[in-house]
From TrEMBL:
FAD dependent oxidoreductase domain location: 28-388
Xref: Pfam families: DAO
Biased composition (Basic and acidic residues): 451-460
InterPro entries in the record: FAD-dep_OxRdtase, FAD/NAD-bd_sf
GO CC terms: cytoplasm
Source domain of life: Bacteria
Phylogenetic classification of the source organism: Bacteria, Bacillati, Actinomycetota, Actinomycetes, Kitasatosporales
Region named Disordered: 435-460
Name by which UniProt lists this protein: FAD-dependent oxidoreductase
SUPFAM superfamilies with a match to the protein in the record: FAD/NAD(P)-binding domain
Length: 460
């Protein structure tokens, strides 16, 4: 099956759609976008101030975007941490990292408290290196994470790695406990139900065409509210005036048929860690609750003019490329059937730094630009948006969260087309070439090509 939003829905069924906005309305807070960011924000705001009238407006259905399509890595990575360390000092970035570590447990705890069964399993994150250059990057990465206060992580050699999981050519790996596997669609579906049960109003099939201070405009009417929060991530470019704010980057995934016991025995992976590598065009994977491998990476990275979606349909070449990665990792799966393929968009700011902001002058807020790390980050962003709204409305003062370095961060916009398209395609073509070179000519030095691409793209 190709498209159909994602495998997670093929498995669990698409949700029944809620009623669209019936006409003009008012609220205390209006949230645009029914993904994790919007729903977690509604959840925490309503929990902290039950009297608030909160409306969520979603263009399709809650979980239509990346929140219903991702790789299900609930982990402590946050886009932009190293840059925030440069801008605000090391200690500020350590606070941000600690908040992210706690966020993994916060999501697990709330899912449990709200009775959301999202197939959660906290086995940590295992990142493997399959070449000397990747191993050098892995060690540097491990040292950096230790410096940000992650004392409980571990570095493994080839033998210890194989005891956990048998990835062909693995020369080492690094493990952190701050990660869990989940079924993303089950989380977003459960979260929407929990939010609704608290008394938040959700209107689906309601696209917001324009956001301006105190107004969210839709074809069916306008919702007026003192606070309008934009939680539209990879779809942001379609909103009036936001074309060059965050670039919609594609990520694609495949899922195999359920593997047999013998196949699992050959691979190992009993700890069900989320699995990644250190390639420049990296892969990410999980062992699903029903015994498949779901694996993702970059396909066609970006469509001209910031076009976003066709319900997850994925090009054949991308499916083949991901299948090649699967078989390169696990040669014993050469004959296994790939049963599902899908894609989604994530939001990439010009400096690759996630942000959360409330503009006190206008009441407009937003959170996003998570790049590929939003499953946990959205929860931290939402609790921060809650604190910012409560602070602005005089219900509370500053909190630890409102003082984190990613709050209120500003960045310039992306270049106009065709430079945007050329830049992103050039960057990923270079990453793939760099990965191929590192595989063919093993060296401990990372390919210089990738470093140049990083610099041009504004990543480092
Ligand atoms: C294939 C893929 C794999 C990924 N894997 C991982 C992973 O394993 N771990 C990880 O941490 N992160 C991962 N990510 C990123 C992560 O999924 C996202 O960062 C996160 O889901 C973002 O949530 P969100 O609510 O901000 O955005 P979204 O989930 O995209 O939600 C935005 C919502 O807003 C709605 N919307 C947009 N525009 C409008 C409008 N104008 N009016 C009304 N509604 C609108 C959309 O329909 C959508 O439902 C992955 C992303 C993709 C695409």
């Amino acid at each position: 099956m190709n498209g159909g939003i994602s495998f997670w829905y093929a498995d669990d069924g698409l949700p029944a759609v809620r009623e669209p906005l019936p006409g003009d309305a008012t609220a205390d807070v209006v949230i645009v976008g029914g993904g994790y960011t919007g729903l977690w924000t509604a959840y925490y705001l309503k929990k902290s101030a039950p009297f608030l009238r909160i409306t969520v407006l979603e263009q399709k259905f809650c979980g239509y975007g990346a929140s219903g399509r991702n790789g299900g890595w609930l982990y402590n990575g946050i886009a932009g941490r190293d840059r925030y360390a440069k801008l605000h000092g090391h200690e500020a970035a350590v606070r941000l990292q600690r908040a992210m570590n706690d966020t993994v447990d916060e999501v697990i705890a709330v899912a449990e408290a709200e009775g959301v069964d999202a197939d959660l399993h906290k086995g940590g994150v295992l990142e493997v290196a399959t070449s000397p250059a990747q191993l050098a990057r892995l060690r540097a990465f491990h040292e950096r994470e230790l410096a940000y206060g992650e004392k409980d992580r571990e570095l493994y050699g080839a033998r210890e790695t194989a005891e956990r999981i048998r990835v062909a050519d693995a020369v080492g790996s690094a493990w952190t406990p701050h990660g869990a596997r989940l079924n993303p669609a089950k989380l977003v579906k459960g979260l929407a139900a929990a939010v609704e049960a608290l008394g938040v109003v959700i209107h689906e099939m309601t696209p917001v065409t324009e956001i301006r201070p105190k107004h969210a405009v839709t074809p069916y009417g306008t919702v007026r509210a003192p606070y309008v929060l934009r939680c539209t991530e990879g779809f942001t470019a379609a909103l009036k005036g936001q074309k060059r704010t965050w670039l919609p980057m594609n990520s694609s995934m495949i899922a195999t048929e359920p593997l047999t016991e013998e196949q699992w025995e050959a691979i190992g992976w009993a700890g069900r860690e989320t699995l990644g590598d250190m390639a420049h065009a990296y892969m990410y994977a999980q062992r699903t609750a029903d015994g498949r491998i779901a694996l993702g990476g970059r396909g066609v990275p970006y469509r001209f003019g910031s076009r976003t979606d066709n319900d997850g349909r994925t090009q054949r070449a991308t499916v083949e490329a991901l299948r090649d990665v699967l078989v390169r990792f696990f040669p014993s799966l050469a004959g296994v059937a790939v049963t599902h393929a899908w894609s989604g968009v994530l939001g990439v700011p010009r400096d690759w730094c996630a942000t959360v902001t409330l503009d006190r002058a206008t009441g407009l807020g937003w959170a996003g630009g998570y790049v590929g790390s939003g499953v946990a980050t959205t929860n931290l962003a939402a609790r921060t948006l809650r604190d910012l709204v409560r602070q602005d409305s005089g219900q509370a003062g500053r909190t630890e969260l409102t003082e984190l370095p990613w709050v209120g961060h500003k960045v310039r916009r992306w270049e106009p087309e065709p430079f945007r398209w050329l830049g992103v395609h050039g960057m990923y073509a270079t990453y793939h070439t760099a990965d191929r070179r590192e595989r063919r000519h093993p060296a401990t030095e990372s390919s210089r090509l990738a470093k140049v691409a990083d610099r041009v793209a504004g990543r480092h």
